[in-house]
Amino acid sequence: MTAPLAVPPRVLTVAGSDSGGGAGIQADLKTMLALGTHGMSVLTAVTAQNSLGVQGAWELPAEAVRAQYRSVVDDIGVQAVKTGMLASAVLVDTVAGLLAETDAPVVVDPVGISKHGDALLAAEALDSVRERLLPVATVATPNLDEVTQLTGLTVTDEPGMRRAAAAMLSYGPRWVVVKGGHLPGEAVDLLTDGSEEHWLRAPRHDNRHTHGTGCTLASAIACGLARGQDVPTAVRAAKDYVTGAIAAGFALGGGIGPVDHGW
Ligand code: PLP
């Protein structure tokens, strides 16, 4: 008799599609596969996108988002959830309402604007992100532009990252990772829950092909949490994974290429 195959941890991304395959649910599912988990997706929006930018975006009806979520949760079950592009206040409210009911850890990547400057979240959705989504987050992973959008703070150095983390924690996530990758020098992130503080440092790779970095980090954290890791362990491992993926990022099309998941 053959032994039953082990079931991998189940991880769900609630995010938008990037037709170019570099960010969004495509990056999430690649990360989940690379890290030995079963990836599932609730699609929130479809983007027409390539290495040059976002040429179009269409959000799905709230009903379609709710139905996808119910299908996955009611039958398969999830051990961690990651959220990415949520497009509008209606979808932020819908997703926050669904996640308020789950016991699974939730990683919120508060996606606002793409590297090319394309808006992936409507300005009027910021209140919902602060008031409804961040309170259900186990970990929130803003970059410095998203910190500015959400808190009004402009961050230029490590003391500024500490102030940004405190401002983000005031909205209710249990932990925050303030990603300092946009600052010059080492790639420094600050992970804190308001009492513990972990400064995560990695050498900067001189590679402009970094499309999908944020999605990849948040998904990798969710994979660690689905395995039962504590937050600092999951975030450290995710940072290592994304550092390798950035080092291996490659040119594709005429613009910014994706990070690589096969390194
Ligand atoms: N497109 C989608 C669907 C995304 O979810 C994201 C980021 O979360 C992006 C594009 C932006 O990716 P980047 O800023 O790495 O170019």
UniProtKB/TrEMBL annotation:
Keywords on this record? Answer: Kinase, Thiamine biosynthesis, Transferase
Does the UniProt entry include the keyword Transferase? yes
The record lists the catalysed reaction(s) as: 4-amino-2-methyl-5-(phosphooxymethyl)pyrimidine + ATP = 4-amino-2-methyl-5-(diphosphooxymethyl)pyrimidine + ADP; 4-amino-5-hydroxymethyl-2-methylpyrimidine + ATP = 4-amino-2-methyl-5-(phosphooxymethyl)pyrimidine + ADP + H(+)
Q: In which pathway does it act?
A: Cofactor biosynthesis; thiamine diphosphate biosynthesis; 4-amino-2-methyl-5-diphosphomethylpyrimidine from 5-amino-1-(5-phospho-D-ribosyl)imidazole: step 3/3
| EC number in record | 2.7.1.49, 2.7.4.7
Enzyme class at the top of the EC tree: transferase
Source domain of life is: Bacteria
Record domain Pyridoxamine kinase/Phosphomethylpyrimidine kinase: where? 18-260
Q: Name one GO molecular function term.
A: phosphomethylpyrimidine kinase activity
Describe the task this protein carries out: Catalyzes the phosphorylation of hydroxymethylpyrimidine phosphate (HMP-P) to HMP-PP, and of HMP to HMP-P.
Name listed for the protein in its UniProt record: Hydroxymethylpyrimidine/phosphomethylpyrimidine kinase
What organism does the UniProt record list as the source?
Streptomyces clavifer
